[in-house]
Every structure is written in structure tokens, then in C-alpha cells.
Write a structure and sequence with these properties.
about 160 residues, mainly beta, 4-stranded antiparallel β-sheet
Amino acid sequence: MSNSFDYLATTNGVFLSTDKGNNWQSISNGLPTYPSQVFSITSSGSDLFAGTYKGIFLSSNNGNSWLPSGPGIIGSVVNSIAGDGTNIIACLDSNIFVSTNNGTDWIEADNGLPKPYFQYVIFKGTDMILTTNAGIYLSSNNGTTWDAIKWWCNGYNVSQFHYN
């Protein structure tokens, strides 16, 4: 993915700007048309991944076309997707999937997690951080195991996490 491009995930698909947000064009060819909601977008190498209302979609050409990625994930709501350049993590309502080979294969990676509603995932370095309606969890081994992050408001529904 070129650093000179900006991408938006929207309720009407994915949009691209090549001029720092002054102009936007739809790049949703191949994405589901109804509902067309794209919840999240990330990159891994030169590829783009979109988490949609109907699964994960991959573009290898800067969004000019999209194809389904991830058998078993197609048709599922993907709340959030994140990449660190090597690995990709997808957050579904009640499952977490990780790909270590650019979306070719997806492995379920929610072993040991309570089955609440999974909401948002990010990478902090190589660590994966997951927010749920039961707290925040961290994995340092591609989702093989997860540890609860101790924090002052356990039990709150955490919709997003940001770090500096």
C-alpha cells in the first residue's frame, strides 16, 4: 500500500484519496453491495483488507477490486481488523481469527477468552490488544494465549483502545 494514499471505511464501502483528503473516490468494486457497510480497513504489505458486514475482503491493487478472504469468515460480521505488516487479526462478534500468511489462511485465536462480544483489535508493536464488553486482553503470541489487562474499570464495555 502506498503511503501517499488515504483510505476510509464507510457505510457505503471504501473510499480513496490521493491528495490528502481533498477529493475521495469510491473503490468498492467486489465488496458486498447490501449491506455495504465496511467497519474497518487495514494493510499488510501492499495488500488492503476490509472488515465488512459480510466477511473479510482483500485487495492487492490499491482497492481497484476486492475478493473474499478467509474461508469460514465469509458471511460473518467483522467488527474490526488490524495488521502489523506481517500478521492480521480479525475481530468478529464472538470469534477472533489471525492470519500469519497475508490472509490465505485464518486460524481461530480466541482460546481462553470469555465469549463476550469482541469489539476492537489493534497491534502495539507485535502485541495484539483486544477490547470486549468484559475488559481488555493482550496476546504476545499471535493469539495463542490471552491475558486480561488489569485496569481500574473492569466490567465496563470497552469499545476502543488507543495508546501513545
